[in-house]
Design a protein that fits this description.
The protein is of the alpha/beta class. The chain folds into 3 domains: 43 residues, lambda repressor-like DNA-binding domains (434 Repressor (Amino-terminal Domain)), CATH 1.10.260; 130 residues, Rossmann fold; 128 residues, Rossmann fold. Helices cover 44% and strands 16% of the residues. The chain is built from 12 helices and 12 strands. α8 packs parallel to α9. The longest helix is centred in the last third of the chain and has 18 residues. The model has no long low-confidence stretch (mean pLDDT 88). Keywords: DNA-binding, Transcription, Transcription regulation. One of its GO terms (molecular function) is transcription cis-regulatory region binding. This is LacI family transcriptional regulator. Pfam families: LacI (PF00356), Peripla_BP_3 (PF13377).
Length: 329
């Protein structure tokens, strides 16, 4: 910074103000300093800055299986929101979620001196692992409805399932079959609750759940079973990838969608509007999840003390496409 100040003909403090976007710097001076920075190839020493400010401007993120659309999109939303706020992100992606794994990941991030941590906790095991963490580290859990004494940001899974099921009932279907996600996922649990709640409230039959594992293959296997059942006219599938498998199984069995069976998914993956037929689905606003998670975390960091824990729920959006239609009489 001293070299930059010398070349630009300004003080060390003026260089600091320019680097920190301080408003009280004349445009001409700012231009001169930036030209000197470019000429010298100056880069700030973030380690030295962290020693002075006691803030690394880095946030930690712990996630599980980022090959899945939901966790990957959540991490992307968090990273973009952090960058917009002027923070870097250090990500630890775990193969399995358990107490030991989560604690090791948090310890690793703490050793890096991160200012705060976001934990993507979609499974019950992850939520339980956060229940007894030591205080002192600013932290937010995403999709961790049972995460104990931490702030939580989540999409309203129950409401999304309710929208999907009510849409199908509103089209005249007597009941709605459900292909669920894995039983230990909180999102799968919420989607089951929303689906079942609509059917019970309307006095409709509640069919047996066909369990899946989020993969197209498990959806395909469930679809093969459903295709053999003449009474099936409407299916709510717990994610779009499994819905893709259901659609493939129906096509192979000659089951017309939406002519004979209407299908609704969940997530609104980028490919869902190009499925055959284009998929009616529930969209999760991962950008909003990321922004709200970072905003809550930064409030904790800036306060420098424990704040009341927050619970923020992001509403889902319903996208109607060509995979659903009124039931044929």
């Amino acid at each position: 910074m001293a070299d930059v100040a010398k070349v630009a003909g300004v003080s060390h403090q003026t260089v600091s103000r320019v680097l920190n976007d301080h408003p009280n710097v004349r445009a001409e001076t700012r231009t001169r300093v930036l030209a000197a920075i470019d000429q010298l190839g100056y880069r700030r020493n973030l380690v030295a800055r962290a020693l002075v400010t006691r803030h690394s401007r880095t946030l930690g993120v712990v996630s599980f299986d980022t090959t899945l659309y939901g966790p990957a999109s959540t991490v992307y939303g968090i990273e973009q929101a952090a960058r917009d706020a002027g923070y870097f992100v250090s990500i630890v992606s775990l193969r399995t979620i358990d107490r030991a794994g989560v604690h090791d990941a948090l310890e690793y991030l703490a050793e890096q001196g991160v200012d705060g941590i976001v934990v993507v906790a979609p499974q019950r095991s992850a939520a339980r692992a956060l229940a007894d963490l030591p205080a002192g580290v600013p932290m937010v859990a995403v999709e961790g409805d049972h995460a104990g004494d931490v702030s939580v940001v989540s999409v309203d899974q129950v409401e999304g399932a309710r929208l999907a099921t009510e849409h199908l009932i509103g089209l005249g279907h007597e009941t709605v079959w459900h292909v669920s996600g894995p039983s230990d996922w909180l999102e799968a649990e919420g989607r089951i609750a929303g689906w079942r709640g609509v059917l019970i409230a309307g006095g409709r039959p509640v069919p047996e759940i066909l369990p899946g594992d989020w993969s197209p293959r498990s959806g395909y296997q469930a679809g093969q079973k459903l295709a053999r059942m003449e009474e099936v006219t409407a299916v709510f599938v717990a994610n779009d990838q499994m819905a893709l498998g259901v659609l493939r199984a129906f096509a192979e069995a000659g089951v017309e969608v939406p002519g004979r069976v209407s299908v609704v998914g969940f997530d609104d993956v980028p490919e869902s509007e190009f499925f055959s037929p284009p998929l009616t689905t529930v969209r999760q606003d991962f950008g909003a999840v990321g922004r709200n998670s970072i905003e809550i975390l930064l409030r904790q960091i800036e306060a420098g003390q424990d704040l009341p824990h927050e619970r923020l729920v992001v509403p889902p959006l319903f996208k109607v496409r060509a995979s659903t239609a009124p039931v044929r009489r």
